[in-house]
Amino acid sequence: MTLPSVSPVRSARIGNVAVIYASDYLNRFNGERLERECRLRLGEGCRALVVDFRHTDLVNSIGVSMLRGVIDVAEKAGARLIFADVNGQAAQLFELLGLMRDVALAPNEQAALTLLAESETTTTADTTPHSD
Amino acid sequence: MPTETPDQHPHFKRVLGRIPPNDFVGRSVELQEIVSLAPDSARRRGLLVLSAPASGVTELLRQAYDKLFAQRGEATPIYFSWSHSVDTVLNSARQFLHAFLSQFIAHRRGEPRLVNSPLPVHELAELAIPADAGWIQKLIGNYERARGDENALVRLCLSAPQQAAAHGSRTLILFDDMHAIDELKGDVDLRIESARLSVANAGTQFVYAGLRRRLLDVLNGESSAHRLDNFGTLHVDGLNMRNARILIERLAFSLHVPLSDESRDLLAQQFSGNPLLLSLYLQAAHNKSIELETYLDCQRLYVDELLGGRLHRRLNVVLENIAPAVSLRRGLLRALHESSLTSVTKTPAEAWRKKLDLDPGEFDNLMTRLHAYELASYTATFLEITACAVWRDYLRANYRLQISAEPRALVVAETLTETLKRAPQTMARQYRRESALGLRELLARFDHQRVPASLFHFEKFTSLYLGLQPEEVVATLDAESELLRLPQVIHTAAGGSFHAPMRQVSDEERCAVAHGFDTNGYTDAGEVVWVAAEIESKVEAGRAITEVWCERLKLLAQACGFRRVRFWLVAPEGFTAEAGELLTRREVLSSNRRQLEMLTVRLSPAGAADKAAETSAAPANEFEMVIPMGGDTELIAAQAVEQIARRLNFQPEAINQIKTALIEACINATEHSLSPDRKIYQRFRIEDDKLVIIVSSRGVGVPTPLSAVSNGEGSESAKGRRGWGLKLIRALMDEVEFERVDDGTRLRMAKHLRP
Fold it and tell me: Is pTM, for the whole model, over 0.80?
């Protein structure tokens, strides 16, 4: 019998934003890999994370608990975090398990990046010193 | 003479054996040890078989006899039991001569039917083959002439192997129940005669089998220790659980007793793998045509047997051997029962003597027998009751019937109730034992080996290896430069054996103390004690529980006066960051299950696991599936249920919900049971308007109550996921209910079809 294959965690860096692609089944192991990748990217200096769930078909509760770890890591590093392309099943789980309170959702990766860029502009504008 | 083997001649398979060779399980090593004495080339003069009570050593000797008989051409096997049925030395010696001649002649003629021949010795002699007839006739002539002289007659009977050897026939004498010669009456001391027998017989080998706590006293009591030179020693205890299960299955199959896996495991545990008691029990099930499908079936028969069946008779015989007089037996029954009610394990022997009102000599004899049958451990000053569960049940029930004179119906009902209530606890204890991480075994293998230090530092290990593939971890571990040199461990024992309070807080298997040396050479400076414990936690162990365990280990070390100590805590899921800080500060080593597995691989070759599969027919609207726990196998279940749900035209969203609920049920089964078979059993049933899914697993099923999770309780625990699975299932499915079964938990959930 061949067990279902589990695709690896891929990621990309776009400026100060890291895009991490969750695998097809978000369980404990893949959740740990995701968390590791996030830590790694934040360690490299990324200021925002986009977790892209486009390949994720199934999520289990342990995988969700690992996402809680990702949220904590991002929070501690002061980084923005957006979950992109979350399917209905995963979204329902995130909702049921209270993740939605702590993370922003975007319909896809591009939308997430746009959201982050807009937010960055706003923040920069807000923090630009006014000259009298 | 032709050489024959049992396999070639099935009719020769059983001569003295009481069960078919194929049903004789778990003793192949011991059997081979005995049989290997037979060849001319055998270097040993004999074997001492030290057996636990009722461990089936008689059947072992009988099976060995059958094997030796079938081999032919080697030494002639002679089996003789110094059983309690003959009460004088002289009669026993006569019986030995009869057994010797009948078995010798049977073997030489190749006629197994003569082995149990009732013919008197002079008639047996006429059946001897010509080569033996002369010396046998002469032996019997001397036997007839020696009548009236007990001493001469006993010696003559026991000299039969010597006579055979003198005429070129080697024999292998299998003496069973050797401890019983102490009970034989007569002017001749059989200890001395048996000593003389083994010293004088150059062409004969001996197997001396008897109760392990008596055999050496009997054999060494009156003779030079040198006579047992070149004897090997064989220890025979109860069967381990795996072999006990196989034995039960084989016996049940042979005896046509329907048996479930749950019942099999309960019986193996309840009888502590005792082959004799298990055989008696299954024989009773056969005779009474009782099915052993549920715990209730098992315990009904058990109580029935304990109070009046084969088990009762067997235990009665032992008690009669220990205390032959009725009044003494009643006193002993009372004393044993009353002692078993107190929490004090050791009682002064003098208090027992006064209670039983015996003079010191009588008391010592009684206690020696109690000790030999392992109902108690007796030293000159203390007595400790050590009776197993079956004995305790027997003593309690019989005390109530015989001493307290309680109504039989009441005793039966309450014993049944108690044993039934105890059954799940018994199994839970076993599952916990089996699920323990095996610290003692691991410590024993340390042996100065060097291993990556991160295997003993959870935080470091996690920071280095979190999320890596197992192969990557192994490769990186190999490259790790910081190594920890482990001590050479010379002794390991459970923590409770050193410090009794540890027994109150930890299973025996989960706390270990290992004495050793961490330097080459055995010096004071190199002496070190490792104190290790496994924290039972389904999630990462937090700071509070970790601190409690650090204190426990410290107290143990202080109580025992250990000078140089290393503490090592293991938590299956590891430790929280706060707990990690505490461990670092206190210099306590820490590992999780994964680290332990990697350590185990590094310290020993990998073992093999048993595999088994079972299938059964199901109706067309019902599907069954069994998946192994772990390895993401829940995905396979999810794919299967997706196909089934599609057949019923569930909407995609509902299918996703069903799949998610099933995945969570599988994870729950894996995480919340100490499953003995590591399998998840699933049944999918299509009913009129719904799909019913039943997920069950064996083991200690203690799910978080649905009422608690529905309120969101537990969601703030480590990583916040305790109870999440059940909460999800409840949210995603239309019906959810748990059902406790004999041996585990069953989750039934259903999803309604909506148009």
Answer: no
